[in-house]
Amino acid sequence: MVEQEARDQTRRCRALPDSVATVTRRGLCMGCGTCQSVCPSGAVVMQVEARTGCITPRIDDQRCTHCGRCMAICPGHSPSPRRAPQEPGSARWDDVIGAYHACYTGHAASHDVRYHGASGGIATALLVHMLQSGAIDGALVTQMSPSNPLQTTWVLARSVEEIVAANGSKYCPTAPNAGLSEILAHEGHYAVVGLPCHMHAIRRWGQSNPLLAERIALHLGLFCANNNTYLGTEYFLWQHGIAPQDVAGIRYRAEGWPGRIVVTLRDGRRIVVPRGSSERRWHRRALFTSAFHYHFAIPRCLLCADQTCEAADLSLGDPWLRELTVTERVGLSLVIARNPQGEALLSDAVAAGAIVVQPTDISVVRRAQNYAFKRDVGGRIWLCRTLGRAVPEYPDRALPASIRSVLSGLRYLPCYVSHHRRLWPLLRVLAVVEGGSRLFMARIGRGMRRLFGASPKDRRAV
Ligand SMILES: Cc1cc2nc3c(=O)[nH]c(=O)nc-3n(C[C@H](O)[C@H](O)[C@H](O)COP(=O)(O)OP(=O)(O)OC[C@H]3O[C@@H](n4cnc5c(N)ncnc54)[C@H](O)[C@@H]3O)c2cc1C
What we know:
The protein is α+β, with helices and mostly antiparallel strands. Helices cover about 35% and strands about 20% of the residues.
């Protein structure tokens, strides 16, 4: 009955062109949660859609006044513009990375924060330092939900304990921007942590809401090639024979770098699985990638042209350099200071001994990631447009489609059907076949390079 009511309501909302229900219906919702915060009548609530495993807005049509504010700030259909190459303060420009002031590799000074962080624990160490030094009154972060260990929730953390408890990457849907209304409701200064889509929304809203812009002392962005639906996690558990109801907690990146997935069961057992990048057995690596990269990607992520969180003040990622992945075991982050504000906050934390960094060159940042996902977005957008699907507007980016980029997009097609659980055995076979053929092609490539003397590429996929 309740479900029927929800379905009826969703159907009614689909008729409203001036609400984000349109964005959801067109498949452009990222689930960032900004619409919940911006709605003046409390008509929007973010919820997990059980069928697709995504977070989407549910709109109460009795409360919706059709003011159009949610549409105006929604990054789903219009992400925020790219910073201009010559924007004051962002002294330098790179076509792939965007505006940057300086780049670093580094880690939290505290061994524990570094070891338990996703990469080098820089995000957590910086937020803790800012809180303790009085630069912020709190930080908008994302943690696994206390009421449902397989879902996420935002928290406006006002204590060191809360910030530390939210560390680590969550490779599943998150809606931290639903907490922006809390920032607006409480005086003070805050840091916000989020993915590129979250930052696009915050910047867009900040342009029309000076109070929000003034209250956010730091936009701390995470690199993101793509995120995954909750079904990706469920599929991963299924592969390992774990029933979701038996799970007491999951950490997607735990115990050093590049880290492992650690699932804690209600009976106290721990299941520890190496992450794809540290897994030696190719078929297990392929299965991991299928769950957390290709087959359960949030479809809207495939149309994102960012990847390094260009709209942030500081962007954080992993330095996936072969020379580091074979030696580093505790944790290391890649940091891009995008403007003097980000640079000053980072320097302050370094001077206080909270963070350790080494300056590095932009060429290292370019080597440290596989930017194929970003490079090929033009092909995926072309593919979607050709299939009659809606695509976001990127007026300030040239996103050419090549035959290769279109073909590479085909690899993600299963994410449109992976919510059919009966297809999961098939996806498993597909992942292994795909992984095997990639390995085979890589071996052929290596052989060719050895034969013709070209140097091997010094980078790894995430
Ligand atoms: C979905 C996703 C995809 C990513 N893709 C890449 C990639 O392709 N390449 C790359 O180099 N790095 C990627 N990262 C970033 C990387 O995993 C680390 O988050 C980043 O390097 C910061 O590490 P840290 O140790 O400094 O963070 P920590 O100190 O561990 O703190 C992490 C902070 O991020 C917040 N957070 C975690 N997950 C989310 C989320 N899903 N949404 C919003 N906030 C969150 C936490 O609340 C915490 O405050 C991705 C992260 C996520 C969540």
